[in-house]
Amino acid sequence: MVTPGWDGPPPLGVVVDLDDTLYPQADYLAGAAVSVGRAAGDLGLDGDAVTRALAACLATGSDTGGTIDRALLAVGVPEAALPGLVPPLVAAFTGHTPDRLDPYPGAEDALRSLLAHVPVGCITDGHPTIQAAKLAATGLSPLLPAVVITDDLGGRAMRKPHPAGLTVLAERMDVPADRLLVIGDRPGKDVAVAAAVGARAIRIRQGEYASAPDTPPAWAVVDSFPEAAELALRVLAPAHSFG
Ligand SMILES: [Mg+2]
């Protein structure tokens, strides 16, 4: 692995994204679709068909909203019935609590090695209840002492690349925001939010946005979290030495 050039002072902390950075978000979405299908069955619909339709809608873009409406229409629910059916199914989606979401291979050890050198934090967009349930299910919470769920700061408008979340996280980590190194999968969010505070980012090509263009460009592009951590360790400020 070639280390790209790094000019200027070294980063003093690392911030990681959650979905498709530390664990495959598709695993969560598959489970949530099953929960919604089960709730749909309780409402007298064909639950398995709703699960399949929702999984298909989520696969075309999990970030777009209105996925449950589209799934119901796809299984033949008349539009007039949506207002009565969508709210309880949205509640089933939001309330889906996975028992376990396996991190990507090597992600836990890689986080541990970063944490041995610098403060590490996590910034994630999404419904706060859902994001907290996902993080808990990965088992990685003990390695992420500082977490900001951007929606907690003022709803969807605070999502990346809005700089507020990263600024708040930097304060909690006691690191100047422009001395952070951000690791994430989405150029338009993770790379852009780093740029918004004068920091740099490593983009991981994995998950739903693996083939998205490198816009804005990251400091480095890698294929896995352990690779990202290894690169970060090469440029981080040395761990505090004694004397
Ligand atoms: Mg992500």
Overall mean pLDDT score?
94
Tally of domains = 2
Give the low-pLDDT segments. Answer: none
Shape: elongated
Within CATH, the superfamily of the largest domain carries the name HAD superfamily/HAD-like
Name of the CATH class of the largest domain: Alpha Beta
Kindly report the CATH topology of the largest domain: Rossmann fold
Bin the helical content: 40-55%
Give the CA-CA distance, first to last residue.
Answer: 33 Å
Instruction: Spell the H/E element sequence.
Output: EHHHHHEHEHEHEEH
The main pleated sheet reads as: 6 strands, parallel
Count of individual helical segments: 9
Question: Could you characterize what this model shows?
Answer:
This protein has 243 residues and is of the alpha/beta class. The protein has 2 domains: 13-23 and 101-235, Rossmann fold; 26-94. It is 42% helix and 11% strand. The protein has 9 helices and 6 strands; from the N terminus they run βαααααβαβαβαββα. The protein has helices at 25-42, 47-59, 67-74, 82-94, 107-115, 128-138, 164-173, 187-196, 225-235, and strands at 13-16, 120-124, 146-149, 180-184, 200-204, 220-222. A 6-stranded parallel sheet has the order 3-2-1-4-5-6, with helices on both faces. Helix 1 packs antiparallel against helix 2, helix 2 crosses helix 3 (67-74) and helix 3 (67-74) crosses helix 4. The longest helix is centred in the first third of the chain and has 18 residues, at 25-42. It is elongated and about 60 Å long. The model has no long low-confidence stretch (mean pLDDT 94). Magnesium ion binds at residues 17, 19-21, 184-186.
